[in-house]
Design goal:
- By secondary structure, the protein is of the alpha+beta class.
- Among the domains are: 50 residues, no CATH class; 306 residues, Cytochrome p450 (Orthogonal Bundle).
- Helices cover 50% and strands 10% of the residues.
- It has 19 helices and 12 strands.
- The strands form 4 sheets. A 5-stranded mixed β-sheet has the order 1-2-8-5-3.
- Helix 13 packs across helix 16.
- The radius of gyration is 27 Å and the shape is globular.
- The N terminus is likely disordered.
- Bound molecules: protoporphyrin IX containing FE (HEM).
- Protoporphyrin IX containing FE (HEM) binds next to helix 13 and helix 19.
- GO terms for molecular function: heme binding; iron ion binding; monooxygenase activity; oxidoreductase activity, acting on paired donors, with incorporation or reduction of molecular oxygen.
- Belongs to the cytochrome P450 family.
- Keywords: Heme, Iron, Metal-binding, Monooxygenase, Oxidoreductase.
- It holds the Pfam family p450.
- Its cofactor is heme.
């Protein structure tokens, strides 16, 4: 071994190791010309760090269920790259609270209703942290990252966009876009009437156009909605728990950032156009108009000035929060109705009754209110297959979540909704799709609203929940009027793919046939 070069390294490490032992010959090429002692030092530091990593993990985990040792450095990274329902269920069933570590981020999963709700309703201890890439995609100044009082105040101003009056303004936009898309689906089905087609991407496309139509009305051109839709898939794909840290060209986060730039460009333009239209005395026709009108209302208390960029960021946060969740809810809605012909028949009967046999009559909020059975079916569909399985929060300080366990400060703490929504005490036969359970006001489902965590709970509870439920009902009701659909069940139909939200693994393959009411 050539140690002659040792004189050239700093004196503090030049004296060689305290204990020497023979080195395997395969290592010698790597240490040619280097001071051997530095390798011992480096190795000792590395081993100490790895031991420390395990000790810290064990110290934080205490008695919680979870692996006794964490995989050095990466932890359960591989699992987080390819999440599966089965693995999640195992985790949730391992305990009301359980522990994992990914890249040294210590994570506490909360699966019971009590603990999930406690996290969502303890803003002094925990705040949403979304996925790792969210700040790069949404921009750090986006309102969704506000916390505490500033968040509450900002959000209060946005409530004007989801009042019953505002929702009523959106119904005609939703209806016309829905009719247009379903007619397109039927046109495409005509070319190959015997073959089922997956609705995964076509349903996403309809949702995107509906959202942009509702948010921006005529202030955004149709081709912009096409462009945003085309690029948006890059954003969905970037929503992994942990991403490659640098947004270098070619990475998923880089592509998502490019997609956001396109979306923000069009949304800013729409905000600008809405302000001009409202200043010229137009009636509100979309969400932006409702917002501008609410700011001009003399009774409105709160901040009155929002730049085009700020408005665009709010709309983009809505798109970000809704595109995947709404698509998941809608696609499972189609699948559940097709798999339960007895429910489908009741939905059709209700459509006939509420529309009085006139399928050209424009839909209104009052008509939507009368579709009680359809609404129960939508609620039940999202209970059985909750679009959002869990929401990552961060413990902003030591969080005494249970008598015998405190979540260490800066840990991730993840309330999971599945067990609450599948609690057999509240929802007997929880795996079964039974809309009737929502029709009995005294029944256990309605008596335990705290279990229905589809939209979260507490200060960050979904702001768009009424709109989302109404939109899914509107599309399914319209589809029930315009077509029949048959589900081609494959071995993958009842397995869930997790891409930010959950989807049937085969994309939900449907064979569509027009009814007499499809124009
Ligand atoms: C089926 C569709 C949807 C589902 C299942 C869903 C679910 C959720 C969930 C679970 C949360 C987190 C709640 C919490 O932390 O407690 C959330 C938050 C949020 N959702 Fe939704 N959502 C849906 C549609 C929408 C729509 C249509 C919009 C807007 C138009 C929207 C806007 C938001 C926003 C802005 C937040 C964050 C609220 C805040 O931090 O204050 N969501 N949603």
């Amino acid at each position: 071994m050539d140690r002659s070069a040792s004189a050239s390294i700093p004196s503090a490490t030049a004296n060689g190791p305290l204990v020497s032992f023979p080195l395997p010959s395969f290592l010698t090429p790597f240490i040619q010309g280097k001071d051997f002692s530095s390798y011992y030092t480096t190795a000792a530091i590395l081993v100490s760090l790895l031991i420390l990593e395990q000790a810290v993990y064990r110290y934080k985990k205490r008695h919680l269920p979870g692996a006794k040792w964490t995989i050095p450095i990466i932890g359960k990274f591989a699992d987080s790259m390819s999440p599966s329902m089965e693995a999640y269920k195992r985790q949730w069933q391992s305990g009301d609270l359980s522990a994992v570590s990914v890249f040294n981020i210590f994570i506490v999963m909360a699966s019971s209703n009590e603990y999930a709700r406690k996290i969502l309703n303890s803003p002094t201890y925990a705040e949403p942290c979304l996925v790792h890439s969210a700040k790069q995609i949404l921009l750090p100044e986006n309102w969704v990252f506000l916390t505490g009082k500033t968040h509450v105040e900002y959000r209060r101003g946005l409530n004007a966009l989801f009042t019953r009056k505002a929702l009523g303004t959106y119904v005609p936009i939703q209806e016309s876009i829905c009719r247009k898309h379903l007619a397109r689906w039927l046109e495409a089905a005509k070319k190959n009437p015997k073959e089922a087609q997956p609705i995964m991407m076509t349903a996403r496309h309809m949702n995107m156009e509906t959202s942009l139509g509702v948010f921006c009305g005529k202030h955004i051109p149709e081709h912009a909605a096409e462009e945003i839709n085309e690029k948006y898939w890059a954003i969905t794909q970037s929503l992994e728990l942990v991403n490659f840290p640098l947004a270098l060209p070619g990475t998923k986060v880089y592509k998502a950032i490019q997609a956001r730039k396109v979306a923000l460009h069009w949304l800013e333009l729409a905000a600008h156009n809405s302000k001009i239209a409202m200043a010229n005395g137009a009636e509100p026709e979309c969400m932006l108009d409702e917002w501008v009108a609410s700011l001009a209302d003399p009774n409105y208390k709160g901040r009155k000035e929002f730049s085009d960029h700020e408005m665009a960021m709010v709309l983009f946060s809505f798109l970000f929060a809704s595109q995947d969740a709404m698509s998941s809810g809608l696609i499972y809605g189609f699948q559940h109705l097709a798999d339960h012909p007895e429910v489908m028949a009741k939905v059709r009967e209700e459509q006939e009754r509420v529309r009085g046999g006139d399928y050209n009559q424009p839909l209104t909020m009052e008509m939507m209110d009368k579709m009680v059975y359809l609404q129960a079916a939508v609620k039940e569909s999202m209970r059985v297959k909750p679009p959002v399985l869990m929401v990552p929060y961060k413990a902003t300080r030591a969080f005494p979540i249970a008598d015998d366990y405190t979540v260490p400060a800066n840990s991730m703490v993840i309330p999971s909704f599945f067990n609450s929504l599948h609690d057999p005490e509240v929802y007997p036969n929880p795996e079964e799709f039974v809309p009737e359970r929502w029709l009995d006001p005294e029944g256990s489902a309605n008596a335990n609203p705290k279990n229905y965590l589809v939209f979260g709970s507490g200060p960050h509870r979904c702001i768009g929940l009424e709109y989302a439920t109404m939109n899914i009902a509107l599309v399914l009701g319209m589809a029930a009027a315009m077509m029949t659909w048959e589900h081609e069940v494959t071995p993958q139909s009842h397995l869930s793919e997790i891409i930010a939200t959950i989807f049937p693994k085969d994309g939900c393959r449907l064979k569509l046939t027009p009814t007499n009411h499809a124009q």
